[in-house]
Specification:
Number of domains: 2
Helix content: 25-40%
Radius of gyration: 19 Å
CATH architecture of the largest domain: 3-Layer(aba) Sandwich
Number of helices: 8
Strand content: 25-35%
Structural class: alpha/beta
CATH superfamily of the largest domain: Cytidine Deaminase, domain 2
CATH topology of the largest domain: Cytidine Deaminase, domain 2
Largest sheet: 6 strands, mixed
Order of helices and strands: EEEEHEHEEHEHHEEHEHEHEEE
Shape: flat
């Protein structure tokens, strides 16, 4: 699918209607199921844009700590339901998974807010297994270019203007992976899942650039994949800042034009005249 549809509308200007065609981002549910030893487990229903579903499923299962990178054997659409529903059910066959995580909370994911209510940073540490140790320095001018680099790789946004994006970009400005979705957290899962499915190694010098806010879910996913720098064009949340601080992630928000706010671990960012800020306090 293209990720968008066209619909006839009335565009009203100064009270006068004009018939036009508008392009709208698609939002549909996706059910993710795990198959292990021929037993099927229903994991989650995600409201998403139906593009890169397999990457979304892989990224979601990984960033939630349910599967490891090398435990995914096969991903396919279900053929056990009627044809009209098949593209909305994904089956992920795995060699191993954390079954105990399936019953711990409701995995229904709304496209706008993500999985709400997870406020236990210790739980994220258990899933990720380690803190981010790489301290390679990135020049502030390179950070300022990240939103535009991501924007040039957006395809659906150019048609609808109503979709989030996430890009994993190395320090040289190369886009390693890209995701677009009506849900900003889904876009991150797609970017991470795409790297997992392609067998791409984690890059210790990478930036996760996102188009919206830097919420807790975004930082959780960055921590799970070992991404040292997160850059957002909008505001962070207090819990996102706390998690970034705990996991040694450099968090920059309001990255627009020639400015940004630096919230945590400024030692990775080289400012003008070679100045680097080792503390944001």
């Amino acid at each position: 699918m293209s990720g968008f549809i066209e619909r006839k509308i009335l565009r009203v200007n100064n009270g006068l209607p004009e018939k036009e065609t508008d392009t709208i981002t698609v939002e549909e549910p996706l059910e993710i199921k795990i198959i292990h030893n021929e037993i099927e487990y229903s994991v989650s229903v995600i409201m998403r844009t139906p593009v890169d579903d397999f990457s979304l499923a892989a990224g979601f299962l990984f960033t939630e700590g349910i599967v490891k990178e090398n435990s995914i054997k096969e991903i396919k659409y279900s053929n056990s339901v009627k044809i009209s529903e098949r593209n909305n059910i994904v089956q992920v066959e795995v060699s191993d998974f954390e079954e105990n995580l399936l019953g711990r909370r409701n995995f229904y994911v709304n496209s706008s807010c993500g999985v709400c209510g997870k406020t236990n940073i210790d739980d994220i540490f258990v899933k990720s297994g380690e803190l981010i140790k790489n301290k390679s320095v990135l020049n502030y001018e390179d950070i300022l270019e990240m939103p535009e680099i991501m924007k040039r790789s957006q395809k659906i946004f150019n048609s609808t203007g109503g979709i989030h994006a996430a890009a994993i970009i190395d320090y040289s400005g190369n886009v390693l992976s890209m995701g677009e979705d009506i849900g900003r957290h889904n876009a991150v899962d797609k970017a991470i899942g795409n790297m997992i499915l392609k067998g791409m190694k984690r890059n210790p010098e990478a930036v996760l650039q996102v188009s919206g806010r830097a919420g807790f879910e975004i930082l959780q996913k960055a921590a799970m994949f070992g991404i040292p720098v997160v850059s957002s064009v909008s505001a962070p949340s207090s819990l996102a800042v706390e998690l970034a601080d705990e996991f040694n992630i450099t968090l920059l928000s309001f990255v627009r034009g020639n400015r940004f706010n630096l919230y945590t671990h400024g030692e990775r960012i080289e400012l003008r005249n070679g100045y680097s800020q080792t503390s944001c306090n």
